Amino acid sequence: QLIKGEVTLKNVTFGYVPGKTVLKNINVKAKPGQKIAFVGSTGAGKTTITNLINRFYEIEEGEILIDGINIKNIKKDSLRRNIAMVLQDTHLFSGTVRENIRYGRPDATDEEVITAAKIACAHSFIERLPQGYDTVLEGDGANLSQGERQLLNIARAAISKAPILILDEATSSVDTRTEKHIERGMDQLMKNRTTFVIAHRLSTVRNADQIIVLEHGEIIEQGTHDELIKMGGRYYQLYTG
Ligand code: GTP
Ligand code: MG
Questions:
Q1: For residue 108, pLDDT beyond 80
Q2: Which of 91, 31, 104 minimizes the C-alpha distance to 56?
Q3: What residues have a C-beta under 5 A from ligand 2, the ion?
Q4: 121 Cα to the center of ligand 1, angstroms
């Protein structure tokens, strides 16, 4: 059973090790289907926020709610079903390409695997592999390029029906041409899902419903692209950089 995808962070403060706060009093409210972008310099805490939404770590201060339910009270396998992700480092296992994509939704048909691969612009390189979709990947996809691994992760997210999507530099390793190509696929991926997107390229976050600017673990600005440009603050600086 899938949830609607409302995500709320309330006064979240977090550190990986005692005495070193990485996120300070973070408040975010994402309505179902909204696109929320996190921007800010390296080390600002962007990935950490998504780590917490994924419940990779437990928080001591504040709370994260999905559809009003504290994620501490949501079973981990239910969270996994409800959140699809394409992260900075790719995650593949030693199995066939098909199995790796289908991991996003085990009951998917072969046809759906191909459709997902097409959305991710992965179909053509998969077809060129020695056994196509039946090619066995070495551990963590060592026999693929970093960009190809990202495309498989995108295909896996595309096949999933999870109402929440996390994209952390999801296309950082694909070349500019493929990135142009995949834009429509990414839009399709985000459609009707609450999406948290982290991207250094600010053109990809422009159309977000909310852009959240982080600095040293704190939200310093929050708004739409137009609002933040008008404000003439940190986002404006980053954008006109
Ligand atoms: P970029 O991905 O480089 O743009 O940065 P980011 O904004 O995603 O930063 P991130 O959330 O990864 O890190 C924020 C702070 O937390 C940094 O000071 C990191 O050193 C620290 N940090 C991140 N991951 C870990 C971890 O697994 N353990 C510990 N101890 N610290 C971490
Ligand atoms: Mg990061």
A1: yes
A2: 91
A3: 47
A4: 30
